C-alpha cells in the first residue's frame, strides 16, 4: 500500500496518537490535543480489537474465515457464506460493475500465481509462466462467478475461484471503525490504516490535514479532510517483483489480462465512502492513465488523482480544488467544474 504521510501541523500542541500493527501495516488513531478521556481509551481498545478480528476473518492467504470459505467452494460445492464475509461480498458487487471489472475481488488465484500473497518484498521467486497467464486470460476468475441466494447459500461457476478483499479491506475496516467510534460518542479522530485515512470531526477547530507520499521519500502534497471523508491511495512501487527488463512488476494486477498494472505510479481518491475510495484507487492504478477519465465517471468520483510513469499528474477538477501541492508536476486536468468529491449524478 502507498503510505500517506501526515503533514506538519501549524498548532504548537500536537495531536495525541496511538500506533500498532493491523492488516500487516502500521495503524494509528489520532485525537485532538488535550487530556485523554475514558471514552477515547475504550475506543482505542475497541478499534484495535475490531481490526484484529477483521484481519482474522479476511486474510487472503493465512488461515482465516476467507481461506476456509474459498477452500469449501472448490469444485463447485454449495456453501453458506459466513457472516463475516457477507458485507465485503455485498459491498464489492456494485463496485465490480461500476469499475468495468478493473476492481475484482475474484482474482485471489491470480494474486497467488504472481506470488503476491506474501508480506516479504521484493519477491524473488520465479514469475508465472506464459501458459498459466494465457489460461487465465482465456477465462479469468471473477467475483461475478459467485452466485449466492437470499439465504447466502453460495456456489462458484469458476471451480478454482479464490476471493481476495485486499483491494477494499482497509476501506471497509475504516468505515466500520468510524461507525463504532461515533456510536461510543467519539466525535473527533483521525483513523489511519496502512496510510489510508478517514477523518471524524476536526483537529482542535481545524480540519485534519494529511499528505500523500510520492514514493521516493518525499511528500507530493496533501488535503484537508472534512468530517467523514476518506483519503485512500495505491502505488505501484511499494510491493513489487523484479521484471526481466530491470524494471518492476507491481502487486496491482489487471484482472482480465492477468498482467501487472502498467502506466500509473500512484493514485489517490478523496471520498466520503472509504470502501468506494479504496476500490477505486486500485481500479484506477490497474487501468492506467488512458482509462482515467472513463473510470472516474463510471465510479462517480469527484476527487481523484493519478501520477503516471512519466511523472504527469492526471486529476479531476474536484481534486484540483482540494489538493495542496508541495511539488510541481506537469498536469492534465479533466474538463468540467470543480464538483464535490461525491458528485450526486449517474455515470454518463
Task: Report the strand count.
Answer: 17
CATH class of the largest domain: Alpha Beta
Taken in chain order, the helices and strands follow as EEHHEHHHEEHEEEEEEEEHHEEHEE
Number of helices: 9
As a percent range, the share of helical residues equals: 25-40%
Overall body shape: globular
Low-confidence stretches: 1-12
Describe the structure.
This protein is of the alpha+beta class. The chain folds into two domains: 16-53 and 187-333, ApbE-like domains (T-fold, Roll), CATH 3.10.520; 65-166, ApbE-like superfamily (T-fold). Helix content is 30%, strand content 23%. The strands form four sheets. It has a nine-stranded mixed sheet with strand order 1-2-6-7-10-13-14-15-17. Strand 6 and strand 7 (196-200) form a beta hairpin. Helix 1 (38-58) packs antiparallel against helix 6 and helix 6 (166-183) runs antiparallel to helix 7 (274-287). It is globular and about 60 Å long. The two termini are 30 Å apart. Residues 1-12 have low confidence and may be disordered.
Amino acid at each position: 500500500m502507498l503510505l500517506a504521510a501526515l503533514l506538519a501541523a501549524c498548532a504548537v500542541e500536537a495531536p495525541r496518537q496511538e500506533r500498532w500493527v493491523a492488516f500487516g501495516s502500521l495503524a494509528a488513531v489520532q485525537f485532538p490535543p488535550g487530556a485523554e478521556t475514558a471514552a477515547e481509551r475504550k475506543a482505542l481498545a475497541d478499534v484495535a480489537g475490531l481490526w484484529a478480528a477483521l484481519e482474522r476473518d479476511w486474510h487472503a492467504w493465512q488461515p482465516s474465515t476467507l481461506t476456509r470459505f474459498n477452500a469449501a467452494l472448490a469444485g463447485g460445492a454449495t456453501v453458506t457464506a459466513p457472516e463475516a464475509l457477507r458485507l465485503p461480498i455485498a459491498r464489492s458487487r456494485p463496485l465490480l460493475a461500476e469499475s468495468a471489472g478493473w476492481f475484482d475481488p475474484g482474482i485471489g488465484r491470480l494474486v497467488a500465481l504472481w506470488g503476491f500473497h506474501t508480506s516479504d518484498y521484493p519477491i524473488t521467486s520465479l514469475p508465472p509462466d506464459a501458459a498459466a497467464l494465457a489460461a487465465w486470460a482465456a477465462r479469468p476468475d471473477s467475483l461475478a462467478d459467485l452466485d449466492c441466494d437470499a439465504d447466502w447459500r453460495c456456489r462458484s461457476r469458476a471451480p478454482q475461484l479464490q476471493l481476495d478483499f485486499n483491494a477494499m479491506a482497509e476501506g471497509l475496516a475504516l468505515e466500520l471503525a468510524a461507525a463504532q467510534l461515533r456510536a461510543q460518542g467519539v466525535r473527533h479522530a483521525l483513523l489511519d490504516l496502512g496510510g489510508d485515512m478517514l477523518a471524524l470531526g476536526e483537529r482542535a477547530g481545524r480540519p485534519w490535514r494529511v499528505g500523500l507520499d510520492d514514493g521516493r521519500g518525499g511528500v507530493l502534497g496533501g488535503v484537508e479532510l472534512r468530517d467523514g471523508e476518506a483519503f485512500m491511495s495505491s502505488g505501484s512501487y511499494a510491493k513489487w517483483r523484479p521484471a526481466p527488463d530491470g524494471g518492476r512488476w507491481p502487486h496491482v494486477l489487471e484482472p482480465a489480462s492477468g498482467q501487472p498494472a502498467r502506466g500509473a505510479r500512484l493514485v489517490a481518491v478523496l471520498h466520503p465512502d472509504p470502501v468506494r475510495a479504496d476500490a477505486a484507487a486500485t481500479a484506477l492504478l490497474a487501468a492506467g492513465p488512458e482509462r482515467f477519465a472513463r473510470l472516474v465517471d463510471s465510479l462517480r468520483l469527484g476527487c481523484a488523482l493519478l501520477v503516471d510513469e512519466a511523472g504527469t499528474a492526471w486529476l479531476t477538477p474536484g481534486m484540483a480544488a482540494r489538493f495542496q501541492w508541495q511539488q510541481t508536476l506537469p498536469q492534465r486536468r479533466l474538463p468540467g467544474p470543480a464538483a464535490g468529491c461525491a458528485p450526486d449524478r449517474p455515470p454518463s
